[in-house]
Amino acid sequence: MEWYAYQKGSSPIRKVSRKRRSRLKRNLLIACVTLAAAGLLWCAIVFNRVNSAATASPMVPADAGVILGMSMWGDKPSPGLKERLDYGLKLYKEGKFSRFIVSGGLDNPDYQYTEGQGMRNYLVEQGVPEEVILMENESTSTYENLKFSREIMQREGMTTAVIITHTFHGQRAIEMAAEFGYTSPQLGVTESQTMSMLKYKSREILAYTKWKIQQLFM
């Protein structure tokens, strides 16, 4: 009888092995559920931060308005970039700053203008004197926008700035400005009427997460 039971698979060793596999599966499931919950919680926190950015009020007059780049459409600013430029123009006309820094590199090797050049051209077309516009033409990211613009400010003896962008992009931008040592940076943010917020806010959650990871190694 003992030999028959062993042949049927009732070995104590096999029973222990099955228990271990069952425990491993249960622990793996718990770990996956915990990670998923943590990920959803983080996304909710970041989404709240993305939505919380607002234009400084009251806004203290600054040396420069730094307009962060966005894609060009050929030789002209894209609708999204035009929104940033128009909002920057509004603040400039209200006397919130006396000079512009327009920041952004070349989107496409076939394009005639960098983002910075395209923004300068647009502002000049709107009546802004060319001598009050400083260009940064090398950056390829928000991080570089703010880093290279800060270098221009230091070179020109400027200390304070209004960072001009869209609301969904503002929180990451102001944190980066503070990281680079901007003096009391202020936000000037506008809502978009031309872009899909589902798309851009989803991308911003990923970009903000990447930025926080990057901060750990700075």
Termini Cα gap: 70 Å
Helix and strand succession? HHEEEHEHEHEHEH
**Strand fraction:** 15-25%
- State the strand order across the main sheet: 5-4-1-6-7
The parts where pLDDT drops under 50 for at least 5 residues are 1-6
Question: Multimeric state of these chains?
Answer: single chain
| Rg from Cα | 26 Å
Given the helix and strand composition, which structural class is it?
alpha/beta
Total helices: the number is: 7
Mean pLDDT: 90
How many strands? Answer: 7
Give the proportion of residues in helices. Answer: 55-70%
Shape: elongated
Largest sheet: 5 strands, parallel
Layout of strands and helices, then pairs:
Layout: H1 2-7, H2 12-52, E1 62-68, E2 72-73, E3 76-77, H3 79-93, E4 97-103, H4 115-125, E5 133-136, H5 142-156, E6 160-166, H6 167-179, E7 183-190, H7 197-216
Parallel strand pairs: 1-4, 1-6, 4-5, 6-7
Antiparallel strand pairs: 2-3
Helix pairs in contact: 2-6, 2-7
State the main characteristics:
about 220 residues; alpha/beta; 5-stranded parallel sheet; two-stranded antiparallel ribbon; 7 helices; disordered N terminus
Question: How would you portray this structure in words?
Answer:
Helix 4 links the parallel strand 4 (97-103) and strand 5. The protein contains seven helices and seven strands, in the order H-H-E-E-E-H-E-H-E-H-E-H-E-H. Residues 1-6 have low confidence and may be disordered. It has helices at 2-7, 12-52, 79-93, 115-125, 142-156, 167-179, 197-216; strands at residues 62-68, 72-73, 76-77, 97-103, 133-136, 160-166, 183-190. Helix 2 packs across helix 7. The strands form two sheets. The protein has a five-stranded parallel beta sheet with strand order 5-4-1-6-7, with helices on both faces. Strands 2-3 form a two-stranded antiparallel ribbon.
